[in-house]
């Protein structure tokens, strides 16, 4: 007897419930975010899950230049540095990876992993930089973060050197920098060393600023007078000026500076671009 295969269909109530709760017929990223926020209001998504989903969606609109560590903040070592000099630099900065330079920041020869120095413990006189030097990944400022993350995954590298249009070193970017755009800030024991890392200069009067930057730090850096009585952070001031939680790419002008939202979720602004040269 020949058995006929039966195609099972989900109960109509289940299909109706799913379509009612998750309407994914959006045609734009903004519309999709709006519907995800609606799902969160219905307690279908947890706030943290919504925040990460928004981060994933918005990563595609960001470029490496938006999140990179600028040239002036790069921690590096020279190819000809002595073993103990390198150890001193590592102890002072606390990083795990360092660009290795020949003469200057435009001559990056490779990357040093701090853990690779362990093989020379007890025989420091045999230290040879070329024996542990790893190749450096080089990416342009304009590369999309989605593409960079895929590159990191394929190559199993965690850091890349960022170059400008003239092939000069513009900065560094790490896999942590990319992931922070999705999951939020990843604090470690060294993040408090320099508050100015919250403000990154990119040239032409353009800066990226973490929305959580304290107003006093912002005012000191830019020589501004943003009010610090009602709000503690730059994000609070900008949100108040908008009168709402602004969406990505929305802009306004405060004290002759143009503020552009690079990333936000349903609860707060996360990353801003500040332009001091194009407020008009």
UniProtKB/TrEMBL annotation:
Keywords assigned: CBS domain, Cobalt, Magnesium, Repeat, Transport
Coiled-coil residue windows: none
Domain CBS, first and last residues per copy: 68-127, 132-189
A Pfam entry, by short name: CBS
PROSITE patterns per UniProt: CBS
One MF annotation (Gene Ontology) recorded for this entry: flavin adenine dinucleotide binding
Gene Ontology CC terms, in alphabetical order: plasma membrane
TM spans (from-to): none
Keyword Repeat among UniProt keywords: yes
InterPro entries xref list: CBS_dom, CBS_dom_sf, CorC_N, FAD-bd_PCMH-like_sf, FAD-bd_PCMH_sub2, Ion_transp-like_CBS, Transptr-assoc_dom
Family label: Belongs to the UPF0053 family.
Physiological role: Plays a role in the transport of magnesium and cobalt ions.
Name of this chain's protein: Magnesium and cobalt efflux protein CorC
Provenance organism: Leucothrix arctica
């Amino acid at each position: 007897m020949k058995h006929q295969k039966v195609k099972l269909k989900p109960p109509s109530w289940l299909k109706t419930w799913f379509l009612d709760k998750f309407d994914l017929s959006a045609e734009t990223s903004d519309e999709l975010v709006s519907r995800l926020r609606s799902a969160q209001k219905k307690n279908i998504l947890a706030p943290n899950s919504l925040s990460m989903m928004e981060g994933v969606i918005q990563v595609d609109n960001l470029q490496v230049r938006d999140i990179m560590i600028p040239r002036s903040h790069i921690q590096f070592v020279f190819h000809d540095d002595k073993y103990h000099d390198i150890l001193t630099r590592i102890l002072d900065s606390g990083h795990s990876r360092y660009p290795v330079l020949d003469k200057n920041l435009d001559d990056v020869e490779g990357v040093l992993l701090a853990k690779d120095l362990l093989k020379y413990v007890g025989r420091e006189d045999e230290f040879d930089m070329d024996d542990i030097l790893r190749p450096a990944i080089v990416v342009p400022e304009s590369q999309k973060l989605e593409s960079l993350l895929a590159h990191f995954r394929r190559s199993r590298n965690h850091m890349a050197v960022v170059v400008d249009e003239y092939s000069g070193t513009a900065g560094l970017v790490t896999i942590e920098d990319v992931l922070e755009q999705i999951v939020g800030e990843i604090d470690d024991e060294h993040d408090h060393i320099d508050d100015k890392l919250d403000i990154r200069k990119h040239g032409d009067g353009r800066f990226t600023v973490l929305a959580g930057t304290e107003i006093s730090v912002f005012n000191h850096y830019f020589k501004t007078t943003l009010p610090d009585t009602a709000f503690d952070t730059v994000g609070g001031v900008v949100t108040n000026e908008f009168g709402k939680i602004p969406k990505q790419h929305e802009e306004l002008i405060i004290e002759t500076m143009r503020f552009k939202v690079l990333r936000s979720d349903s609860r707060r602004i996360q990353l801003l671009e500040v332009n001091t040269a194009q407020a008009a």
